[in-house]
Amino acid sequence: MKDRKELIQGLQNSPVILRIFCENVDAQRRIEIRITGKWTLHEHVCHLAEAEKMIYDRFQTFKNDPNPNFTPYLPGETVTEEDLIHRDLEVALSDFEMLRAQTVQLVGSFGADVWSKKAVHPEYERYDAHILLRHVLMHDFFHMYRMEELWLTKEEYLIK
User: Fold this and answer.
1) Does position 160 have pLDDT exceeding 90, yes or no?
2) Domain 4-157 part of CATH 3.20.20.140
């Protein structure tokens, strides 16, 4: 795929973008519940760190399993994430940085054999390592966009 190098670079950049963003947000705003029933900015960060463990494992599966088969990762349903607000934000950011560096290194080691593998994932019509690579970057930016909304959006414009 033509964009593999750019996607890997994006994954490598996400932790830096996330950390700098968090440093600009007041500590109280990070934990403020702005939309009832939705995650706080803090919870989004902690989710990204937790999800990165699963992401690394999925890429490992692509590398090691001749016939990768995945189970959906559904926060709150298949994965318990109710205590995200109680996790240490600095630890979550550091974990995300460390795990993402490992993910980038792993993906960078893939040869044509791994990139050409097809996988089974019940949520998707098609699934392979390239789709996962793009999906991870989109997932990062989805959550970072939601965090920016929580930080900057005036109350009357928040979608509740």
Assistant:
1) no
2) no
- What single string gives the DSSP state of each residue in 8-66? HHHHHHHHHHHHHHHHHS-HHHHH---STTS--HHHHHHHHHHHHHHHHHHHHHHHH-S
* Residue 154: exposure state from Cβ atoms within 10 A (0-12, 13-18, ≥19): exposed
pTM: 0.93
Domain ranges of the chain: 4-157
Q: What pLDDT sits at residue 124?
A: 95
Q: For residue 120, report the phi and psi dihedrals to the nearest 5 degrees.
A: -105, 130
In total, the chain counts a number of residues equal to 160
Distances (CA, A) of 14 to 8, 45, 95, 140: 10, 12, 13, 7
Q: How far apart are CA 74 and CA 152, in angstroms?
A: 27
Q: Are 89 and 22 in contact (CB under 8 A)?
A: yes
Structure tokens, 30: 């990070």
Residues facing 41 on adjacent strands: none
